[in-house]
Amino acid sequence: MNLRHIRALALKESREILRDRIYLALAFLVPVLMMVVLGHGLVLEVRHVPMAVWNQDKGPLSRDFVDRFRLSEYFDYRGELTGDQAVEQALKRGDVRFVLIVPPHFSERLSRGLTAPVQTLIDGQFTYHARVASGYVQAITARFNQDRIQDWLVRREGLPPQRVQQQLSPVKLEVRYLYNQALKSEWSIAPGLIMLIMLMAPALLTALGVVREKESGSIFNFYASNVRRVDFLIGKLLPYVAISAINLLVLTAMALWVYGAPFKGSASVYAVASLLYIFAAGGIGLLVSVLVRSQAAAALITMLGTMIPGFMFSGLMMPISAMSPEAQREAHLFPAMHDLEVVWGVFLKGQGWDFLWPQVALIGLYAVVVLTLAWVLFHKRVKR
Amino acid sequence: MWWRQLAALWFKELRTLYRDPFLLLAIIWFFTAEIYIAGTGIRLELNKAPMGVVMEESSAPAREWLAAFHRPWFDVQGSVLDMQTGQALLDSGKLMQVVDLPPRLDEALWRGQPVAIQVFMDGSNVTLGSLMASYTQQIHARYNTEQMLEKLHRSAAQPLPVPQVDNRVRLRFNENNEDSWFMSVTELFMVITVLGMLLPAALAVREKERGTIEQLLVTPLDTTQIMLAKIFAVILVILLGVTISLFCVIVPLIGAPLRGDLGLFYASVALYAFSICGVGLFIATLARNLGQVMLLTFMLILPMLLLSGAWTPPEAMPAWERALMAFTPLYHFNIIGNSILFKAATLAELKTHLLALAAIGLVLFSFGAWRFRRQFAV
Question: Which chain B residues have a beta carbon less than 8 Å from that of A148?
Fold first, then answer.
């Protein structure tokens, strides 16, 4: 390594960035914009699921039953439907995500002590939302049934309601969400977005570095010079790492003060892990840049190649442990999953070095491997 | 004549794409392997979520309550000494849910005293937290009903019929709740979107960077032809990719159904590709080099992909966002594509969305063409 060469190259690259005003502005603006839009917009919790009812009964009990769905915070009542055709159409158009169908004689059957069937049709397109909604539908139904049992006792045995309630009261359930009390997306999404944006942005910034010179032909200046490959790559990498480090600070500040996420863990773990992560992400871009021949290919591969693992295979949507072996393998190919553990660990769970050192080490190892790979595959000789 | 020139230009664009082996390989990879891995690999479902219990003394009702938490959703890994240990295990991620069962649950139940079971869940992953909360409440509510029925039967002299509602939940359109259907199709739409935005922008800006655009402009071709040739090339690539993806991966390997009119689906894909290419060309007129293209695309594409109703249904978004997203082509295409494939929607039912898609495409294309002409008109 030759520090003078690296410095000269990094300076040249920085000057190039500084002279492209739009690019420079975008490099700082885009991550912040992402954080604003996605932080507010990416809602993963299931609330206000639109629903409709086809009540063929109209008795007092069916009204009470339907009201429990109408008043639930999870559902959003959109009105009454009549007829199979209307139900089918509403589901097909996606106006509502589920329809509760109460057949005739519902109230009558219940007051006679019989089982009353009802049907819930759920739009299965969004599988996860359908699952959560279905769980709540069953929970509401069960609670209605508990009241029926108490009611039945009061009416049939003639017992005073207080005594029935005393004798037959359901066990309460108190659910507490740790790390994220209100189960609000923002708290966990904002730090999670840092992971996603800091994977994509540095990679996109470095992705064109080498291939741009290949396309324009200015790479021959380097081929003919005494600058070594490793110096060239480091010189290309450093300015973008600097930009990304500034972005990281801004995004962290936003997570804390715009989204109000807590920061309970070790700041030093976060700093070290994030810096290594930036090197790793920049390394991915550089590796692609070294490999491909056109800027178009570099852009496409880097964008899809970091977005998909960053969003889907990082654990942001679902934990890695719930994935198939192939998907887990793909997840391990990227540093995103380890960084997410670090980010959530230090922001939400108050973890420090004792918990997170393996993750930090793996991110570091990843950075070294990617950059070494870029160096090995980068040749000064023109192929063909 | 005009069309022959366009065809010639179109071949030229296709040839540049064809001669870039890395680009071709990447396109094929994203249309096949990536969709397969994402489609089969990621399940948005609880899968043996590790769960611990703080149980000071074991009683029959407590055991019964716990027995309802079984695989494949939950995996009760055993009891923890106290809540402190439980908290530590939650912190380290070894457990996702810890239940604090009160002592003398049986006695309290027998006497009819109010008791509460506390559940502590890891809320850091919202998807998982929502599933755990929903399932736990469902299991708990069922347990309560059963308990009460049992007690009722015990106290009554003869078995009583008790009024109960039997709620039969049925899923429509994806009857078995196959995540792979949802994931693979969503992933396919994602790939189409990235390709459709980035490729035409890259093709156009490359000519700007190299100066070959000047050569094109001195030929008798007009700017519409130049732009259309690029768009048509990308549309062809996308249609081919969709075909490979549908008939080599999504249908045979993942088993998703194609319920609707395939012709309508292809027409919608082409229309969507056209309007998304319009976005790409618009970016190309703003940007001077590919670096700028990439950052601009990044800025537009990530919100579009994550917020346009592909991952979360539109109704889950805040109102301002839904209003904004109605201007993005992907919002409409998500509804159109999913409705045709899974709900067998017809042309008449999707009219408004198709029209919106066409309108957005035309506006973007004309705007792009106008800016393009202004930039280079002598």
Answer: 162-165
The residue from A167, A196, A225 where one domain ends is A167
Q: How far apart are alpha carbons A150 and A65 in whole angstroms? A: 15
Residues of B in contact with A40 (CB under 8 A): 318, 321
> Does A114 share its domain with A237?
no
> Which residues, 6 or more positions from A3, have their beta carbon under 8 angstroms from its beta carbon?
none
From A235's Cα to the closest Cα of chain B, the distance in A is: 18
- Under an 8 A CB cutoff, do A308 and B34 touch? yes
Residue in chain A closest to B91 (alpha carbons) equals A349
Phi–psi pair at A269, nearest 5 degrees? -60, -45
Given A167, A193, A224, the domain boundary residue is: A167
User: Within 10 Å of residue B356's Cβ, how many Cβ atoms?
Assistant: 19
Residue A273 lies in domain = 3-43+184-377
A260 shares its domain with A369: yes
Tell which of B94, B234, B294, B334 to mutate to test the A interface (max A CBs under 10 Å).
B294
Write the CATH number of the domain with boundaries B49-155: 3.40.1710.10
| Helix (H) / strand (E) containing A68 | helix A60-70
Assess if residue A148 is contained within a domain: yes
Q: Are residues A118 and A55 in the same domain?
A: yes
Name the domain count of chain A. Answer: 2
Query: Cβ B316–A129 below 8 Å, yes or no?
Result: yes
Mutate to test the interface with A, among B29, B164, B185, B334 (most CBs of A within 10 A): B164
Length of chain B measured in residues: 378
A209, A341, A367, B136 from A8: Cα distances, Å: 15, 37, 23, 61
CB atoms closer than 10 angstroms to residue B248: 14
Q: Quick one: DSSP state of residue B314?
A: G
Same domain for A267 and A344? yes
Helix (H, G, I), strand (E, B) or coil at A47: coil
* A341 falls within a domain: yes
Please list every residue in chain B whose beta carbon sits closer than 8 Å to the beta carbon of residue A239.
Answer: none
Verify that A122 and A231 share a domain, yes or no. no
Which amino acid is present at A267?
Answer: A
B interface mutation test: which of A47, A69, A89, A177 has the most B CBs within 10 A? Answer: A177
Is residue A112 domain-resident? yes
> In terms of Cα–Cα distance, which of A196, A200, A233 is closest to A27?
A200
CB contact under 8 A, B91 and A351: yes
**Helix and strand tally (H, E) in chain B?**
15, 5
Domain locations in chain B as residue ranges: 2-42+175-376, 49-155
The Cα B131–Cα B45 span in angstroms is 7
- Examine the domain organization and report whether A225 and A262 are in the same domain: yes
Residue type, A158: G
Q: How many CB atoms lie within 10 A of CB A237?
A: 26
Q: Looking at CA atoms only, how far is residue A278 from chain B in angstroms?
A: 17
**Each residue's pLDDT tens digit in chain B (378 positions)?**
788 888 888 888 888 888 888 888 889 988 998 888 888 888 888 888 889 998 877 788 888 888 888 888 888 888 887 888 888 888 777 888 999 888 888 887 777 777 888 899 888 888 888 889 899 989 998 888 888 888 777 766 666 678 888 888 888 888 888 888 988 998 899 999 999 998 888 888 888 877 787 777 777 777 788 888 888 999 999 999 999 999 999 888 888 888 889 999 999 999 999 999 988 888 888 888 888 888 898 888 888 888 887 777 877 777 888 888 888 899 999 999 999 998 888 888 889 999 999 999 999 888 888 887 777 654
